[in-house]
UniProtKB/TrEMBL annotation:
Annotated GO CC locations: cytosol
Stored Pfam families: cNMP_binding
Name of the molecule in the record: Regulator
Cyclic nucleotide-binding domain boundaries: 9-78
Lineage of origin: Bacteria, Bacillati, Actinomycetota, Actinomycetes, Kitasatosporales
Parts of the chain that traverse the membrane: none
Gene Ontology MF terms: DNA-binding transcription factor activity
Amino acid sequence: MIPTSTPSMLRALPPEHQERLMRYAREVSFPEGARLFEEGGRADRFWIIRTGTVELDMRVPGRRPAVIETLRHNELVGWSWLFAPHTYHLGAEATTPVRAYEFDATAVRLMCQEDPALGSAVARWVGDVLAHRLRSARTRLLDLYAPYGSGNRI
């Protein structure tokens, strides 16, 4: 069974690493319907949601984008900033008004390189998020497009 939410920074990082990371945060807001990023775009920032919801979607030729997951409070939006070539693998849209902490990806990557313990903790956190998102994407795409769905039948 897939967990209902991705691992939050609050559960994944020790307090001292959270404090260091939050020094790079700036508060931002997005209106309902705003696109945070597009699939294939340059991943130069990421967000942690404070309030509101963001849907992650994937382009599907000949169809509307498939919604992969809905993210909420304390969840990470964007993981592609950590891994070369630093391009987003999904798109993201605010489905309600959103307030979030925004982080400059280059600055955070540099901080992680300078502090291996912090870098390791951030990599584990983002890796856990990535693993969750891949499971969610697989299940969602099977539900949408496979002849028998994901196999979860009553």
